[in-house]
Write a structure and sequence with these properties.
This protein is mainly alpha-helical. The chain has three helices and two strands, in the order αααββ. Helix 1 packs parallel to helix 3.
């Protein structure tokens, strides 16, 4: 049960990192950026607390870091940048159209 919860927290951590990065690139709203950073730190803290209650702390910690890193790397691999005419970069997912 704790392993499943740790994986879900790691996925949520990767999603919040993606949205933080997206806000950083577009520079839309500083409050939104700060809220995503707060969620990111909160999820990381909850993941560490969940792992510390397990028997093998080092193995669980390395597993959580590895899963978080894979999720974050997957999200960043789908990011594409597009420099539009007015000079503001736009970030979108995948290799589809740039609408």
């Amino acid at each position: 049960m704790r392993n499943i919860l740790s994986i879900l927290l790691s996925i949520a951590l990767g999603v919040s990192v993606y949205f933080f990065y997206r806000q950083y690139i577009t520079g839309l709203n500083l409050f939104l950026m700060a809220s995503f950073a707060f969620v990111l730190l909160l999820l990381l803290f909850l993941n560490i607390l969940l792992i510390r209650k397990s028997q093998s702390v080092k193995k669980k910690m390395l597993t959580a870091i590895l899963i978080s890193g894979v999720v974050v790397a997957l999200f960043f691999s789908f990011l594409k940048e597009d420099n539009s005419e007015n000079g503001n970069p736009r970030v979108y997912l995948g290799s589809g159209s740039k609408n």
